[in-house]
Amino acid sequence: MTFSPQLEAKFGDLLQRYPEGRQRAAMIPMLMFAQDEIGSVTDELIDEVARRVGVTPLQVNEVLTYYSMLHRKPLGKYHVQICTNISCLLWDGDKLWDRACAKLGIGHKEVTADGRISLEEVECIGACSWAPAIQVNYDFHHFVTPEQLDQLLDGLRKNQ
Questions:
Q1: At what angle do helices 27-38 and 5-17 cross, to 10 degrees?
Q2: Class in CATH terms, 5-66
Q3: Contact assessment for residue 114 and residue 103, using Cβ atoms and an 8 Å cutoff
Q4: Identical fold, 5-66 and 78-158
Q5: Are 119 and 100 in contact (CB under 8 A)?
Q6: Across-strand partners of 139?
Q7: For residue 100, what are the contacts with CB-CB under 8 A and spacing of at least 6?
Q8: Average pLDDT for 47-53
Q9: Segment 68-76 mean pLDDT
Q10: CA 20 to 30 Å from 138, out of 39, 69, 92, 152?
Q11: Mean pLDDT for the chain?
């Protein structure tokens, strides 16, 4: 499998950080970095990461199915995660979720027809003190109001 020179450099750096026999610890960041570059975790990527860290593809699959931030199907250019766990729920996170679904016309782990935005309802993004919280790709948005959600989604639709 061919990756960009930048990703190859990241992989090399990750694998050198761990002593011989412990390189499997690089598996999760390798999967995340590669997912960002190619759009999802494919069978080919699973095989490649398994080879590089010295485990079986089955072991990579076990990790893949455990972590919710790893995806087998492509996400949108902008992946919107809306927390509906207890803290966010108490501050109307569920209403933000319903609003986003209605506004985008998609549901959980679905992607808009143009491929720009994917939506995911998540249990917790670790921002309970700033509820309700939303994450877009790797950017957090705290104390989100319905109006702010609308502005955020409209902005994502317009961004190239």
A1: 170
A2: mainly alpha
A3: no
A4: no
A5: yes
A6: 136
A7: 80, 82, 119, 149, 153
A8: 96
A9: 90
A10: 92
A11: 94
Helix, strand or coil, per DSSP, at residue 122:
strand
H helices of the chain, where?
5-17, 27-38, 43-53, 57-66, 86-90, 93-104, 146-158
Per the CB < 8 A criterion, the answer to whether 75 and 37 are in contact is: no
Tokens 């995806």 belong to: 71
d(CA 123, CA 83): 6
| Mean pLDDT, residues 29-44 | 95
Domain map of the chain by residue range?
Answer: 5-66, 78-158
Amino acid letter, 62: E
The architecture in CATH of the region 78-158 reads 3-Layer(aba) Sandwich (3.40)
Q: What are phi and psi of 55, to 5 degrees?
A: -130, 180
Residue with tokens 């960009």: 4
